Amino acid sequence: MDGSNGEERLVHEVALVVPKRTREEEEGDCVEVLVTELKKRGMVVDKDVGLADVFLKVAAPLETLESAAAELHIRKPTRLGMDLPFEMQGSEAFIQQPDGSLFSWFERFRCYQHLLYGIVNCYGHDVTLKLDGRELCWAAGESLVRKLESEGVIKQMFPLHDELKRKELLPTWALNWWNFTNQPIDKIYSYFGAKIGVYFSFLGMYTQWLLFPALLGFIVQMVDFGSLQFLVLPSFFVITTLWAALFLQFWKRKNAALLARWQINCLVGPSQGYRFLGMEWSSLPFPKELVRNLGDEKFKEKEPYQRYEWFAYRKRFVLLAIYLLIIQYLTRLGAKVSVKLINREVNESVEYRANSLIYKVFGLYFMQTYIGIFYHALLHRNFMTLRQLLLQRLIISQVFWTLMDGSLPYLKYSYRKFRARKKKRNEVGPSTGKIQISSRVEKEYFKPTYSASIGVELEDGLFDDSLKLALQFGMIMMFACAFPLAFTLAAVSNIMEIRTTALKLLVTLQRPSPRAAATIGAWLNIWQFLVVMSICTNSALLVCLYDKEGKWKMEPGLAAILIMEHILLLLKFGLSRLVPEEPAWVRANRLKNVTQAQDMYSKQLLRSSSGESTPMVTPEQEQKQQQELKQS
C-alpha cells in the first residue's frame, strides 16, 4: 500500500513460497485453504507459477492495515503532540510519513506478520488439510502459517521489492555517481526502514566530512616541507583528532534531527541507548514470572529483583572471561562461540544481545586487523614499511570487499537459477529448448537475503558493512601520522561504497526485512573508543619519530608530545559537553509537544470531573473554534 500523491496504490509487499502441486485436491487443499483465509483477513492474493514453486503475492489495503495496527496497539505520533495507540476512527489525527503514507515500512511489515500469523483455527474442531496425498491436521486454535511452515509447505516468506519505488531509487541513488555524497535519505527510510536509512545517512555524512582531512592528508603526504616536516605531522595529528571528535558530536545532532523529521520518538536510557516508544521490540527487563510472583511486602518485592540482578552480572562476567581466553586464537571460531555465549547471557532485550555481539566480534577483528600493524609501528619503528603495509591493507581490503559484495550475491543468484532450470529440464526432457524464468517474484526468490555473516538472528547485513567501516576508520585514525594519504584513499573508497551497497540492496538482494533502530547503536561507542585509541597511538608514533635511538628521554620534544596527548584527551571529552547532542529546534519541538499534551490532558480532566463528555480536539481544531467565536 502506498499513499503517495494523495491516492492509494495497492502493492504486493510480501510473498509466500509454496510447492507446485502434482495433482488437484478436490477438497481441503492446504494452499487453497491458505488463500481463502488470507482473503478473509482482508488481504489481496495473486498467484505466480514458477518452475518448481507457486508464489503467493500478498497485498493489504489501507483498511486492513489500519485494523491490524489497531489490534497491535501501535503507538504513532499525532497532531496532539504525543504518541497514542492507533485507532481506526481517529486515523486522520495521526501524522503521515515523509512519502505521504500513513504507516512506515517497519509498521506495515509488523502488520503483515500479525495478519499472516494471526490466522488461527476458529472452527472449534480439527481441520484436515491435504497436499499431494499428504494429510495435515490443523488443530483448533493453531496458527495456519506456522503449521504450514513446520510441515514444509510454506518454504519461505520474504518482502517484495516495489518496482515503482525501486526504479525511482536506482537513478537518484545507486547510479547517481555525479553527486558523490548526496542521497535521498527520506526515500531510503521510506523504502528500507529506519535502520538502513540511519546507516546511509551516517555513511554519507562521514564521507562528506572526510573530504577535508583527505585533501589535507594528500598535501601533507605529497609536499616536502623540509625542516618543518617535524611540525607538520603533529599539526596534522591534532587537526584530525579534533575533526573526528567534532564529527561524532555533530552526527548525534544530525541523528536527532533525522528522528524528529521522521517522527520517531525515543527514550534515552542510561546504558541501553535509544528505545522505541510503542514498538514492542524490546523484551521486558525482568522475566514475567518474577513480576507475577511478587508479594505485597516491600522486602519480598525487592528480593527477587536483587537476586536476579546479581545473578545476571555474575553470569555475564564469567561468560566474558571465557570469551577473553579464546579471543587470541581463532577469529571465526571465536565469533561463533561469542554468539553461543550471548544466547546464554541474561540480557534485558534483543538490543542488549545485539550490542553484546557487536562488542565481542569487533574485539576479535580489532586484534586480527591491527596486531601486525602495531608490531611494525612500535617494535620495528620503520615508517616506510608501515606506510607500505597500510597502503596494502587499504587497497587490498577495498578491492576484496568490493569484489565480494558485488560478485557473491550475483553468483548465488545465478547458481540458484541454474539449479532450478536443470531440475525443470530433467522433469520435462531436453527437447523443450531453453527454459526461461519470466516471473519477477521467482527471480527475487532466487536472490540471497541481506544477512550478517555472524549472528543472523540478531543482526542483518548492515553488521558486516558497519564492521568494515569501523575497521577503516580505526586504520586511518590510529596511524594518521604515519600515512596521511590514507584519508584520501578512505574518501574514494566510501564514495564507491555508497553506490555499490545501494546497487546491491536494490538489484542483487532480496528486499531486507525492516528492523527497529534509531541510531547506529553500539557502533557509535566503538568509534568513540577508536578516537581515544588514535590519540594514544599517534602520540606513540610521534615519540618513535623523535626518539630514533630508542632511549625514551624526556627531552622538550617528547615532553611536548605527552602534554599534547593529555590536552587532546581533555578536548575530546570536553567537546561532548560543549556541542549539544540535538539541535535547538528539536528540543523546542519536543517541549512544545509535551506542553500541548499536558494542556490537553488537563482540559480533558477538568471536563470529566465536571461531568461533561466532550470529545478530544486537536490544538488546530481548538484554535479554529476560538477564531470562529471571535468572528461571531
From TrEMBL:
<keyword id="KW-0812">Transmembrane</keyword>
<feature type="transmembrane region" description="Helical">
    <location>
        <begin position="231"/>
        <end position="251"/>
    </location>
</feature>
<dbReference type="GO" id="GO:0016020">
    <property type="term" value="C:membrane"/>
</dbReference>
<feature type="compositionally biased region" description="Basic and acidic residues">
    <location>
        <begin position="621"/>
        <end position="632"/>
    </location>
</feature>
<feature type="region of interest" description="Disordered">
    <location>
        <begin position="605"/>
        <end position="632"/>
    </location>
</feature>
<dbReference type="Pfam" id="PF04547">
    <property type="entry name" value="Anoctamin"/>
</dbReference>
<feature type="domain" description="Anoctamin transmembrane">
    <location>
        <begin position="188"/>
        <end position="265"/>
    </location>
</feature>
<dbReference type="InterPro" id="IPR007632">
    <property type="entry name" value="Anoctamin"/>
</dbReference>
<feature type="transmembrane region" description="Helical">
    <location>
        <begin position="317"/>
        <end position="337"/>
    </location>
</feature>
<feature type="transmembrane region" description="Helical">
    <location>
        <begin position="469"/>
        <end position="495"/>
    </location>
</feature>
<feature type="compositionally biased region" description="Polar residues">
    <location>
        <begin position="605"/>
        <end position="616"/>
    </location>
</feature>
<feature type="transmembrane region" description="Helical">
    <location>
        <begin position="558"/>
        <end position="575"/>
    </location>
</feature>
<keyword id="KW-1133">Transmembrane helix</keyword>
<dbReference type="InterPro" id="IPR049452">
    <property type="entry name" value="Anoctamin_TM"/>
</dbReference>
<feature type="domain" description="Anoctamin transmembrane">
    <location>
        <begin position="316"/>
        <end position="592"/>
    </location>
</feature>
<dbReference type="GO" id="GO:0005254">
    <property type="term" value="F:chloride channel activity"/>
</dbReference>
<keyword id="KW-0472">Membrane</keyword>
<feature type="transmembrane region" description="Helical">
    <location>
        <begin position="516"/>
        <end position="546"/>
    </location>
</feature>
<feature type="transmembrane region" description="Helical">
    <location>
        <begin position="357"/>
        <end position="378"/>
    </location>
</feature>
<feature type="transmembrane region" description="Helical">
    <location>
        <begin position="196"/>
        <end position="219"/>
    </location>
</feature>
<protein>
    <submittedName>
        <fullName>Anoctamin-like protein At1g73020 isoform X2</fullName>
    </submittedName>
</protein>
<feature type="transmembrane region" description="Helical">
    <location>
        <begin position="390"/>
        <end position="411"/>
    </location>
</feature>
